[in-house]
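RECORD TYPE: protein structure
NAME: Beta-galactosidase
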Amino acid sequence: MQTFEIKEEFLLDGQPIKLISGAIHYFRMTPNQWEDSLYNLKALGANTVETYIPWNLHESIEGEYDFSGLKDVEAFVKLAQKIGLLVILRPSVYICAEWEFGGLPAWLLKEKGIRLRSTDPRFMEKVRQYFKVLIPRLVPLQLTHGGPVIMMQVENEYGSYGMEKEYLRQTKQLMEELGVEVPLFTADGAWEEVLDAGTLIEEGIFVAGNFGSHSKENAEVMKKFMTRHGKKWPIMCMEYWDGWFNRWNEPIIKRDGADLATEVKEMLEVGSLNLYMFHGGTNFGFYNGCSARGALDLPQITSYDYDALLTEWGEPTDKYYHVQKAIKEVCPDVWQAEPRKKELANLGIHPVTASVSLLAIKDTMMKAQKTMYPLSMEEAGEGYGYMLYSAKLNNYFHENKLKIVEANDRVQIYIDGKHQATQYQATLGEELVVNGSKEQTQIQLDVLVENVGRVNYGFKLNSPTQSKGIRGGIMQDIHFHQGYEHYPLTLSETQLQAIDFTAQSNPLQPSFYQIEMVLEYVGDTFIDCSNYGKGVIVVNGMNLGRYWNVGPVHSLYCPKEFLKNGTNEIIIFETEGKEITEIVFSDRPIYQ
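PREDICTED:
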C-alpha cells in the first residue's frame, strides 16, 4: 500500500516528490476524450491530475443524484490511475471554476435568506446530505485504499469570501467522519488577508496558493505565512493560471507560451504546481458561470478553452511544448513523450427541415403552473435555462405603462405575439408604453427570461439577484398585475420530444428549428453560429451550450460522441427573431 505525507516535503512512500499536476475537468468533456487528455498530461512530464467535483452537476435536482456518463468521476479517477497519474480531488461544495453558481445547486435558493458557505444549519444540512452520497464514492479511490487520490480540498478560495473558521472546521470534520483519510487542504490567493481568513492551518490543514505569475514572490508570501504558524510545509500552487477565461462581448485573452514557460520554470524551482487549466473543455448546457463587476453580472462563454496547453477540443498548443521543455530543464528525470493530436471534421451544410414558434407550442411542450404572483425560476422549475411568463392584461384601448420589477437576467417582452423590448443589465426594469389590439378586450403578454449564468465568485453569491426569473412582479399602470402562467424551459429530453413542428411558424418570435440529417461518418466538429442571433443548440439530445452573436466566439464545439452514423436530429432554439435556414459545420472554431 502506498503512502503520501506532507512534511517539509511531499513524500510518496517516504520519498520526496515534486507534484507536477494539470487540471482536467471530467465534466467539461466526453468520457471518450479523457484518455487522450490524461495521456497528454503524462507526456508533458506531469505525475498528477487535479479535478473539481461540481455539486450542481451531480445533484441538479435536490435528492436526485447522477454520476453517469461525463459525470462519472470514479471512472475518470480510475482511468488516471491506469495511465499512471496521481490524483488531487476538490470535492468542496463551492468550486468557482467559472462554473454556474460556483458549483452550488440552484435549488438552494428556494430557502429564503439561506447563508451560503456558512454554518447556517440549513446550508450545512444540505452539505451533509450531498457528502453522504459523494464521499463514500471517493473513499475507495484514496491512496490508503489502493487508489490514486493523494489529497482532497476542504473549501476553495474561502478567504476571498468569508472568514468563518467554524464553517471550514465543520466541513473538514464531515469529510473525515465519512472516511476521508488522505491529507486535506485549502487553496487561496497568495496574500496575507485571504490566507488568514480562508485557511485551517492552526488545525494542520495544508495551505496551497492560487496564482499564475511572480512565482518566487508569491512562494515567499506562502512560506512566511506558514512559518508564522510554525509550519515548514512545501510550497504548492494549486491553480497556476496558464491562461484565462472569456466573457461575451469581450476580446479573447491570450498568454504568451514562452512567458508562461519562464514562470513555470521558476515555480518548479521553488515548489510544486498544478497547471490551471491543462485542458479546459466546454461549458455544455447551461453551466457557464458569470463574473460580478459592480452592478453588472457578466456571463462567461460556452467555450472553456482557457488558452490552456490543450485547446478546447484537445489539440496540443505551442504553449504545451514551451512548458514541456521548461519541466525537463528543472526535472531532467521526468518521462516525456510526443502528445496525441486531434483530427477535426467538416460535416457540410444541411437545411432546416422544420421550424415552430415557442409561443405556439408552449402548452404542448409542458403544463403551465398557474399562480397569482410570478414565481422565480427556482420556485417553478430547476432554475436553469429560460422561463416563459404568460399573462392576460386588461386592454384599456389607449397607451398603457408596463414595468417588470426585479428580474434577472435577460428579458424579452412580447405583446400579442409582437416583440416590444429586450431588457438586459442597465435597461432591466425600464418602463414601457404598450398598446393592445383594438378588437380585443385583453392583451396577451409573454415574457421570456433567460438565466445567462449565476456568479461563480465574489460577494454576489448571497445576492437576491442570483435567484433568476421575475422576483418582484409585472406592473400595468401603477399596480401589480395578478395571474400568471409559468413555463420553465430547460430543454430536457421530455420537452424536446414534445415539440410539435407542425404548429405555427413565426421566425420573429423565439423559435425552434429542426435539422434532420444523415451522416456517413462522424468526427469532432464545430457548428458555425455566425449568422445566428442568440440561443442554444441541442445535438441528438445533448445541449452543446449557448451561442451569441456578440462574440468573441461564433461557433460551438461538437464532440463526435454526440453524433452518430445515420440519422441525426439537431434542434436550435433561437431567441432573437433571426430566421435560420441551414446549419453549417466547420473543421475549425470561428472567432470575431
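COMMENT: The chain has three domains: 17-330, 349-355+500-586, 367-489.
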